Amino acid sequence: MTPVLELDDVAVAYGKRRALDGVSLSVAPGEIVTLLGANGAGKSTTLRAVSGLVRPTRGHILYEGRDITHVPADATVAAGVSHVPEGREIFPEFTVRENLLVGGHTVERSRIDERLESVFGLFPVLRDRQAQTAGTLSGGEQQMLAIGRALMTRPRLLLLDEPSLGLAPMLAREIFRVIRRINEDGVAVLLVEQNARRALALASRGYVLETGRLVTSGTSAELSADPRVRTAYLGLDRARSDVAG
Fold first, then answer.
1. Rounded distance between C-alpha atoms, residue 34 and residue 206, angstroms
2. Which of 18, 42, 162, 229 has the highest CB neighbour count under 10 A?
3. What was the pLDDT predicted at 95?
């Protein structure tokens, strides 16, 4: 089966600083894969490279077997890739409905109502807030709006960057329940998430980035049992050591 996404030896630089160096990974159709790593490890840059917001200096990015390494961001979206960036980046002065319509600007007009209904089915609160200015929504509602906007194009690959950042635990759990529902509808997900434990519980596989390089990968069970991952990202072994001390 052809992966929905493949990165082969991808490098990205910001000026003289190398943000990614030889990253290779894959996401199968209908799979959730997580990227773990500390701040500055290159996780967000990986998503930006896939969505066409930054250009690799080396390597190739394949989407459904097609090379999209140098495809413009808008064409990547039209092909079926949607990106929810860290910080949500909604339009605060627009209404909820207007934000969703921006997300669906490439969708045929005859299908807009159908797409809106699909988003409202996932996030009923957005239906109730359609006429509300997006900047007045709570943090959790803004994250729902950002994801809903990305879903307006019916993507086959969804790139999620820190979807639970800054959310209360109850809202974070709701966001993760929705991500699972989206995935169960057949959408592949590449997930960057600060809460490594929750990310590994949701994903089937993961990769660990350190200073732009992949240092390990495996199933979620394998990574959860890896001493380096447990200490650096799950805090389990460190916590036990502190208790024992």
1. 5
2. 42
3. 97
What is the per-residue burial (b if ≥16 Cβ within 10 Å, else e) of 133-149?
ebeebeebbbbbbbbbb
Give 232's DSSP letter.
I
Alpha-carbon radius of gyration of the chain: 18
Whole-number Å distance between alpha carbons of 156 and 73: 15
Any long-range contacts for 218-222 (C-beta under 8 Å, 24+ apart)?
Answer: 220/34
For residues 203 and 213, the answer to whether their CB atoms sit within 8 Å is no
CB 188 within 8 Å of CB 30:
yes
Average pLDDT in the chain: 91
Task: In whole angstroms, give the CA distance from residue 104 to residue 107.
Answer: 5
Is 20 in a helix, a strand, or coil? Answer: strand
Q: How confident is the model at residue 242 (pLDDT cuts 50, 70, 90)?
A: very low
Count Cα atoms within 13 angstroms, Cβ side, for 190.
30
Q: What is the CATH topology of the domain spanning 52-197? A: Rossmann fold (3.40.50)
78-100 average pLDDT score: 93
Q: Which of 78, 29, 37 is nearest to 204 (CA)?
A: 29
Mean pLDDT of the 136-165 span = 94
Q: What contacts 196, CB < 8 A, 6 or more positions away?
A: 34, 36, 229, 233, 234
Q: Is the pLDDT of residue 241 over 50?
A: no
What does the domain layout of the chain look like in residue ranges? 52-197
What Å distances lie between residue 19 and 27, 54, 57, 223, CA to CA? 21, 11, 11, 23
Q: Spell out the residues 6+ positions from residue 87 whose beta carbon is closer than 8 angstroms to its own.
A: 165
